[in-house]
Amino acid sequence: MWEYTDKVMDHFLNPRNVGEVENPDGVGEVGSLACGDALKLTFKLGEDGRIVDAKFKTFGCASAIASSSVLTELIKGKTLEEALKVTNREIAERLGGLPEQKMHCSVMGQEALEAAVAYYRGQKATPHEHNHGEKIVCTCFGVTDKEIERVIRDNGLTTVEQVTNYCKAGGGCGGCKGEIEKIILAVQGDQAKAKMAPQPQKGKKLTTIQKIQLIQQTINEQVRPALRAHGGNIELIDVEGDKVLIAFRGMCAQCKISEFTMRDVVEAKLREFVSEDLVVVEDKESSETQHGHKG
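User: That's the sequence. What structure does it adopt?
Assistant: Structure tokens below.
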């Protein structure tokens, strides 16, 4: 069960400004019922150009309702320019914090406000319609590269798990996680590399599951990129005690120096990041079968 602050529970149980503004100047709709969260925000401007009324309708969890409720309070009395400066962080802070896995609810509020302002300004984009030049990275939740870049930059995110918490990208089939990692690296650079890299576990006793997970992570992040750069790949076949059974794919499966690659690249990295006792063995039959099949 999620641990919610008293402020979150207050806005959840006693939400402010629920409903729709009559004859609204701005209308913003984000999310979808299929994805589990949806929000419609409407506002009315006064003669002085400030927001005199704002209401919301939300389908979602306690965090979604509370975030929407506090958003309407934050923007009332503000000009559109002032309202657009309200960030998802400010929404979460006003609630006394949100569970990390629920931060996407505060982001949804920020996006609804931007959509409502765009509507007022004549840019009446329909829900899930994206700007020209944006590419959908997460097809499960319809999240674009620009949306991912934004939550990374605005919130200082450095891991795929954090990105998923803030905008759901990568939370479905997981097929876009590699692309999300590239975006993180492009935005955060060395800071993200340090977070993503597996930490050496020498001297630390690992369970069998931990060992297999760390071996797979090291192969994914330290070995596979180097092999792919030369048209090759690698697959983890099995782990038997300290013996790691692997198979080369692509160009590596027919490379004459695969023995060197296995010892000086694969085994070296696994000994550095997992255990000095590991021995890497190539499953020749698997490598040859895969190569023969492709041929």
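The chain has three domains: 6-120, 136-196, 208-294.
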